[in-house]
Structures are given as C-alpha cells and as structure tokens.
Write a structure and sequence with these properties.
This protein has helices spanning 12-30, 45-55, 102-111, 140-157, 162-181, 187-198, and strands spanning 2-7, 34-39, 59-63, 66-67, 70-72, 78-81, 93-97, 116-120, 200-204. The radius of gyration is 16 Å and the shape is globular. It is α/β, with parallel strands linked by helices and 210 residues long. It has a single domain, classed as Rossmann fold (3-Layer(aba) Sandwich), CATH 3.40.50. The termini are close together.
Length: 210
C-alpha cells in the first residue's frame, strides 16, 4: 500500500511539522507501507499531482500552512486547492495538519469523492521551546501537540477506522491538557491544546479504513 506525505520545511512551523512527521513515516514503513515522501522542494503542486496519479496512495497526509480552501507546500505555494485539484483525493483517506483547511477544502474534497478528510476548521496552534528548534523531537512542549496529531495517522496505519483513530487522538489531547494544567505555567499550553481539540474535525465516511 502507498502512503503519500508532504513535508515542506522552509520556516520554523514547517520545520517542526516536517520533523515530527518523520515518526509517522517510521510507523508506516514498519507496517509495510511504501512511503512517497515529498520533502522540501519536492512538496510542490506539479510533483504532488504527478505522484498522486502515478502511485495512487490510499492515505495522504498534508503538512504545511493553509487557509479555508487550500493547503500549501514548499515556500507556501498552493498544493491542494478546493475546486481546482481536490478531485485528486477521490477514494483516499486524507489528513491535513494545516490551519483551517477542513473548513472548505475538506468539505469539497469529500464532495469530490475522498473517503474522508480530517483536519482543522480553524488555526492549528502549537507551542514550542525556541532553544529546542534544532532538536524538535526533544521539545517537550511541542510533543504535547504533535503526539495526538501523529496518533491519528499511526492508528489509521494500524488498521483503525477514521472514527476510531480520531477518538484516540482526542483522548490523548485531553490527557495532555490535564498534563499541561499540572505543570508550571501550563495554562497557556492547555488553552492551545483545547483549541486544537475543539477544531479537530473529520468529514466523509468515518467508518472507512485502509
């Protein structure tokens, strides 16, 4: 089975998203997936469309900045756009770790035949430690946000349905909110985690699985 993932890496935000996505890639490879990794300059619309058409992935994960109707790739150039190339998501399970894209793009992708589209209908907010930017996987603040996100994809890779995967992610978000509230100066972390949990949505057939 093929799994396509986009990993632009041109600013602090995408640097964190890209590095935490390496854990997802590792999980997928362990479970026998062929990973099509569009990293850095490869995360552009032409390459994305070509690889989708050629490799026909059953699972797509988009990492990058976004807006209501699009997800961007390298240097914030549009990658997946509602009403333009969203039909490429037909018959696929899609997860976008991106601000707002579920608001319009997710709905359009499902209308165009995507099995499901999971993402955020408002901004995805995460906290990080500036001194840890060279070692994002060791950043305990960032871990609170990216572990629930990664768990969604990891659960799909292990055969869970979209609904089951989403429920597991939501449980971990809640656990991390409690953890943050119990830490020193953790109120802001908890507020941001609660925001992400509130805006974490799935559309389409939530009983679908890979």
């Amino acid at each position: 089975m093929n799994f396509l993932i986009t990993r632009p890496e041109h600013d602090d935000t995408t640097h964190y998203l890209s590095n935490w996505a390496k854990k997802v890639i590792g999980c997928a490879e362990i479970h026998g997936f062929n990973v099509i990794d569009l990293n850095r300059e490869m995360a552009v619309q032409k390459e994305f469309e070509s690889r989708i058409t050629k490799n026909n992935p059953c699972l797509v994960m988009l990492n990058g900045h976004g807006d209501d109707n699009l997800v961007t790739g390298h240097q914030n150039k549009p990658l997946l756009i509602g009403g333009t190339n969203d039909k490429l998501m037909k018959s696929r399970i899609v997860y976008a770790l991106s601000c707002r894209s579920a608001k319009e793009l997710g709905v359009k992708a499902v209308s165009s035949g995507a099995k499901s589209y999971t993402g955020y209908d408002d901004d995805f907010i995460f906290s990080y430690t500036p001194s840890m930017i060279s070692r994002p996987l060791n950043d305990d603040k960032a871990m609170l946000f990216f572990e629930p996100s990664n768990l969604f994809i990891d659960s799909l890779i292990k055969g869970n349905t979209v609904q089951e995967a989403k429920s597991k992610s939501e449980q971990l978000f809640r656990k991390n909110i409690t953890k943050a509230l119990g830490s020193q100066n953790g109120a802001n972390l908890a507020k941001n985690l609660w925001w992400d949990l509130r805006h974490f949505v799935s559309y389409g057939d939530l009983t679908s699985s890979i």
